[in-house]
Amino acid sequence: MSRLDSVIRRLSAQRDILNTMPERLKALPGPVLEVGLGNGRTYDHLRGLFPGREIFAFDRTLNAHPACVPDEDHLVLGEIEETLGKAKDWLPAPAALAHLDIGTPDDEVNRRIRAFLEKTLPQIMARGGLVVSDQWLRSTRLTVLPMPDAVPAGRYYLYMASGPDRG
Ligand SMILES: C[S@@+](CC[C@H](N)C(=O)[O-])C[C@H]1O[C@@H](n2cnc3c(N)ncnc32)[C@H](O)[C@@H]1O
């Protein structure tokens, strides 16, 4: 498979799974988190899918297309280990959806980020909230859900959160 094929398959998988989110989450209130704003393409898609929801977008720097820049109350710049780590203190409600698109070619960086996300996401997601991730995550508070048939195995992962630990 060429790298072009691979990118197309990855982005198609991303869009296919995200397109199922409004129906799955129609009964669950809460904001949407876009972790890895990048160019803002997925953010643009998400705001079309979720016109009534707050969407908070995270990235270390702003590189988004000018038409896809969130307002300053919804743009969170900095390393996610810093910003997402503190999000439970200021999010208006636990998140209904988190979309993660932050993988790098560096396995060691990915391992560190995964460990951080496995610890942090359960604390900021609503009970029943969904995590759509380009990273394979393992946490007793994130239940693996099957992907739609259209999404090739290993491209994207879907989890349901059991909600913040109140203990
Ligand atoms: C593949 S791009 C996201 C593309 C985006 N979904 C789009 O539609 O354009 C990944 C983004 O994650 C950001 N990123 C990766 N690791 C990060 C980290 N540890 N903290 C903050 N941002 C990070 C990068 O700066 C990059 O913009």
User: Biggest β-sheet, characterized?
Assistant: 7 strands, mixed
Q: Which class best fits the helix and strand makeup?
A: alpha/beta
- N→C terminal distance: 48 Å
Note the run of SSEs as H and E. Answer: HHEHEEHEHEEE
Shape descriptor = globular
Radius of gyration: 15 Å
CATH superfamily: Vaccinia Virus protein VP39
What's the average pLDDT? 94
Fraction of residues in H or I helices? 25-40%
Name the beta content range. 15-25%
Quaternary organisation of the protein chains? single chain
InterPro entries: Methyltransf_put, SAM-dependent_MTases_sf
Organism: Futiania mangrovi
GO molecular function: methyltransferase activity
Pfam family, one: Methyltransf_17
Explain this structure.
By secondary structure, this protein is α/β, with parallel strands linked by helices. The model has no long low-confidence stretch (mean pLDDT 94). Strands 3-2-1-4-5-7-6 form a 7-stranded mixed β-sheet, sandwiched between helices. It has helices at 3-18, 21-24, 41-49, 80-83, 107-124; strands at residues 32-35, 55-59, 75-77, 95-100, 125-133, 142-145, 157-161. Strand 1, helix 3 and strand 2 form a beta-alpha-beta unit. The protein has a single domain, classed as Rossmann fold, CATH 3.40.50. The protein has 5 helices and 7 strands; from the N terminus they run ααβαββαβαβββ. Helix content is 31%, strand content 22%. S-adenosylmethionine is lined by residues 36, 38-42, 59-60, 63, 79-80, 101-102, 113. This is Class I SAM-dependent methyltransferase. Keywords: Methyltransferase, Transferase. One of its GO terms (molecular function) is methyltransferase activity. InterPro entries: Methyltransf_put, SAM-dependent_MTases_sf. It comes from Futiania mangrovi.
